[in-house]
Amino acid sequence: MANSKYEYVKSFEVEDEVMVPNIVVVRIDGRDFGRFSEAHEFDKPYDAKALHLMNACSMTVLEEFPDIAFAYGFSDEFSFMFKKETKFYQRRASKIYSLIVSFFTSVFVTKWKAFFPQLELRIPPSFQSRVICCASMEVLQAYLTWRQNECHIKNLYATCFWELVKCGKHEIEAKLILKGTQKQEKNELLFQQFGINYKKDVQEIFRQGSCALRKQVEDIVKYQEDGTPVRRRKKKVIILHSENITARSFWNDQRSLSKDVGLFGECIENIKPEYIKSFQFESKLMPSTWIVIRIDGCHFHRFCDAHGFDKPNDVQALNLMNSCAVSVVEEFKDIVFAYGVSDEYSFVLKKDSLLYERHASEIVSAIVSLFSSIYMTKWKEFFPKKDLKYPPYFDGRCICYPSSMILQDYLAWRQVDCHINNQYNTCFWMLVKSGKSKTESQNCLKGTQTREKNEMLSKFGIDYHNLPAIFRHGSSVFWDKEETKSECGTEGAVEKYRKKVVVEHCNIIDTSFWKAHPTILEDEDNQCCQALGTSTCS
Ligand code: GTP
Ligand code: MG
């Protein structure tokens, strides 16, 4: 790890450990899924194939992360429950919710073709996520009851609504007919007008949602020479549907759940309103501070090896990262600057941003999920001859910086890190290529300073300063003015500009970059006061 005078910026990072005995629940939810389902012409009210795809993704999440004991989902959402004693990533909330949503998104893109073979992905899917802390089994039971009630209510309503629309009613009319109706009335409407017996005719996957959990099953592991199958009991992730997932008859009977999470008590009839309030609560980031979202590839060492990336730098892999960052900057207009190196990217949101009401988990998860989605969808464009062997994923965190000077120090810290790592890695791989073992190369480099490393490189005929700027400086992404054309007006020739996202590989430690681009970190104090509803700092 690099050491520099900028390291102090790390002290702005906050701890967000979920303390024991809270049970960690991560809920993911489709971002702008109305638009996504319109774009892909999903069946209404719900598309069975899309739900099966969601279920398949949740199964893969359980297979990848053994610390997750159970998942429940419907529509475009899924909640993942961790084992009560989990030490997953030291129980750090942002790490956990971000990497789960990133992995889920990548898997969703990977599996899309299997569920929609005739349909290209027209827009990249993305999800948001958050952690819900359940302080006891009673709270967890209330949470799951709440989610399954939502599933019942939403599905019954949507079934009625779309039946009415299908029989010729206008959407506004259908809404009016259903306004204020109770469950019983909706059931009757379905039966009398459309001959639908809700419980019998509507599939479980729609009415009850889906559970993913591990079960002991007998699997055929091989066949003997005479053809007799050899069976072994092993744990397998399966999907189940149940009318009442928090009934003791369902939950307590699943051995893996009662052992890894705990037992449920009597059925919950009325969920305490303060519980629902706590499930919905989200803290806001401090106003009038620069928000930095830093995402980082998880286990990218392995991912780069598995995909044969050039060492120490693979220019196509970096170009792919940059292209994803450009799309993210274009999508979230509050991002004023992004800086990337290796498998990480930092996105800076303007000081007065009100994106998602400054809810940290919504901002972090939306960015990390969209980035992952685009990484997957653009892979073939950058690596036409390489197949993705498994879906990559990223984690994300959020840090607030109170002044543009400290923010510049943060960015300088990342660029110094880029420089130190790049110089070390370039030397290391030259030594390895020259025939030294990895341990010998490490020993050679131990305690060496910049000058010594540069000398070492020059012995290999490399002038460090002539290496491509993308390797030495990393990549900066920002909106820049692009000259379009000169137009003759009444006051003579007028230059026309439009804004465009650019990728540059420049020195951002030096303040001259910021002086040359004064609008990037413009401190819009007046706007910030407006956002706060005050007028004192005009
Ligand atoms: P975690 O982030 O802790 O999950 O581990 P990680 O394996 O992702 O390591 P870390 O983020 O600390 O470092 C990034 C790693 O990605 C580097 O150590 C490299 O192994 C790998 N990497 C990043 N860019 C490149 C590249 O262009 N070429 C190659 N070969 N490897 C790269
Ligand atoms: Mg990493």
Tell me the layout of helices and strands.
Blueprint: E1 23-30, H1 33-39, H2 48-64, E2 68-74, E3 77-82, H3 93-115, E4 127-134, H4 137-166, H5 171-178, H6 183-194, H7 198-201, H8 204-207, E5 210-223, E6 229-240, H9 248-251, H10 255-260, H11 273-280, E7 290-297, H12 300-306, H13 315-331, E8 335-341, E9 344-349, H14 360-382, E10 394-401, H15 404-433, H16 438-445, H17 450-459, H18 469-473, E11 475-489, E12 492-504, H19 511-516, H20 525-532
Antiparallel strand pairs: 1-3, 1-4, 2-3, 2-5, 5-6, 7-9, 7-10, 8-9, 8-11, 11-12
Helix pairs in contact: 2-3, 3-14, 4-5, 4-6, 13-14, 15-16, 15-17
Guanosine-5'-triphosphate binds near residues 313 and 318.
Kindly state the number of beta strands. 12
Major sheet description: 6 strands, antiparallel
Question: Taking Cα atoms only, what radius of gyration do you get, to the nearest Å?
Answer: 27 Å
Question: What is the terminal separation in angstroms?
Answer: 43 Å
Report the helical percentage: 40-55%
Q: What fraction strand?
A: 15-25%
Structural class: alpha+beta
Low-confidence stretches: 526-532, 534-538
Shape: globular
The distinct bound ligands, ions and cofactors come out as: guanosine-5'-triphosphate, magnesium ion
User: How many DSSP H or I helices?
Assistant: 20
Q: Averaging pLDDT over every residue, what do you get?
A: 93
**Arrangement of strands in the largest sheet:** 4-1-3-2-5-6
